[in-house]
């Protein structure tokens, strides 16, 4: 099950209390203070793990608490520190703190092994040995360890891919991903076949490849949550470039492209500035001898309206698939 959102509660460990103690060795009358400090509480640490692909572990286990620091003791013995708790997070996870209904971003996990302290453990209290002075050689006071607060977190996973597939439902995105990679998304001839994002590695040559992400189709109003918009559109925020798929059978291909661009812009204005390629998909749904004329006709319209070129492809027959992969790879290199 692909889970890309979770809310959990965490608590760093409390600091251990300082100790009030006096030396009691034989032949040492009126021994001085020897109360040790309390141990530091454990931290709550987020760590990036490339072997974790979903936030499923945090859907059902919602509370995480680090170990408290141990109390100080006599003979100047400091309390042991509490054990930290590690939250193993998939790469691309953003961590937000929820406080008074507002979200504050605490971390963005993007690298394997990257560690970020989300909540620090409390400091241990001071033992009475710290309060001895020439005028107070037998202090009977120590300080308690710091008590930490429980924090509510929101975890949001945004897939990390090189190329993001963008198109209306049933535009052929899943079929394309299954053809150019080893990914096996569900494919059927109805809208919203894809109900969760999919990743696939696209091999261009023996030594050249890139990662492509397929998300559920975008419809008008997706930025407001219509269809599956808000739930998944964020997954192409991190992609380096975009591949727009326009169905060749659409009666309004220019309007389709305009709508897709508008939805991305309204969700995040920076997404509209990403480098991209436009592909006219599903050419196999028309006679082969009409391919070139149809692509040429729509290409002229795109060039006139948007000053952009398009490429016609068919995932079923493989028409222009190698050329498209090379164009995407070159665009990635140029964009870097």
Uncertain segments of ≥5 residues (pLDDT<50)?
185-195, 222-229
Query: Average pLDDT, to the nearest integer?
Result: 85
Q: Biggest sheet, in brief? A: 6 strands, mixed
Compute the number of structural domains: 2
Helices, by number, come to 6
Count of individual beta strands: 14
Which structural class do you get from the secondary structure elements?
A: alpha/beta
CATH class category label of the largest domain: Alpha Beta
Provide the spatial order of strands within the biggest beta sheet. Answer: 10-11-9-12-13-14
Radius of gyration: 29 Å
* CATH architecture type of the largest domain: 3-Layer(aba) Sandwich
CATH superfamily of the largest domain: P-loop containing nucleotide triphosphate hydrolases
Q: What fraction of the residues are assigned to beta strands by DSSP? A: 25-35%
Overall outline: rod-shaped
Order of helices and strands: EEHEEEEEEEHEEHEHEHEH
Query: Could you give the distance between the termini?
Result: 33 Å
State the CATH topology of the largest domain.
Answer: Rossmann fold
Give the helix level as a range of percent. 10-25%
Question: Which keywords apply here?
Answer:
336 residues; alpha/beta; Spo0b-associated Gtp-binding Protein, Chain: A; Rossmann fold; 2 domains; 6-stranded mixed sheet; 5-stranded mixed sheet; 6 helices; 14 strands; 18% helix; rod-shaped
Q: What's the topology here?
A:
Layout: E1 5-11, E2 44-48, H1 57-60, E3 63-65, E4 85-89, E5 93-99, E6 102-109, E7 115-119, E8 150-157, E9 163-167, H2 173-180, E10 198-205, E11 208-214, H3 229-232, E12 241-247, H4 253-267, E13 275-281, H5 291-306, E14 310-312, H6 321-335
Parallel strand pairs: 1-3, 2-4, 9-11, 9-12, 12-13, 13-14
Antiparallel strand pairs: 1-8, 2-7, 5-6, 5-8, 10-11
């Amino acid at each position: 099950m692909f889970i890309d959102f979770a809310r959990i509660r965490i608590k760093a460990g409390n600091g251990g209390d300082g100790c009030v103690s006096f030396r009691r060795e034989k032949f040492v009358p009126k021994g001085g203070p020897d109360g040790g400090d309390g141990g530091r509480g454990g931290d709550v640490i987020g760590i990036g793990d490339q072997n974790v692909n979903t936030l499923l572990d945090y859907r059902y286990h919602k509370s995480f608490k680090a170990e408290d620091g141990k109390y100080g003791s006599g003979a100047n013995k400091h309390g042991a520190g509490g054990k930290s708790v590690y939250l193993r997070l998939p790469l691309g996870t953003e961590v937000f703190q929820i406080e008074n209904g507002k979200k504050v971003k605490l971390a963005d996990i993007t690298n394997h092994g990257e560690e970020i302290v989300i909540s620090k453990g409390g400091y241990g209290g001071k033992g009475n040995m710290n309060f001895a002075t020439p005028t107070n050689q037998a202090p009977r006071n120590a300080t308690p360890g710091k008590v930490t607060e429980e924090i509510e977190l929101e975890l949001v996973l945004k897939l990390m891919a090189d190329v993001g597939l963008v198109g209306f439902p049933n535009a052929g995105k899943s079929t394309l991903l299954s053809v150019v990679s080893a990914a096996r998304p569900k494919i059927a001839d109805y809208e919203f076949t894809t109900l969760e994002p999919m990743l696939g590695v696209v091999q261009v040559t023996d030594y050249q490849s890139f990662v492509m992400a397929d998300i559920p189709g975008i419809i008008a109003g997706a930025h407001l949550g219509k269809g599956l918009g808000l739930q998944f559109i964020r997954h192409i925020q991190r992609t380096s470039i975009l591949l727009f798929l326009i169905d060749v059978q659409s009666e309004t291909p220019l309007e389709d492209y305009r709508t897709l661009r508008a939805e991305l812009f309204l969700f995040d204005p920076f997404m509209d500035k990403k480098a991209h390629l436009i592909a006219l998909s599903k050419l196999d749904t028309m006679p082969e001898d009409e391919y070139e004329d149809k692509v040429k006709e729509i290409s002229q319209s795109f060039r006139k309206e948007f000053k952009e070129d398009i490429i016609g492809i068919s995932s079923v027959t493989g028409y222009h698939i190698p050329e498209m992969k090379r164009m995407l790879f070159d665009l990635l290199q140029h964009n870097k």
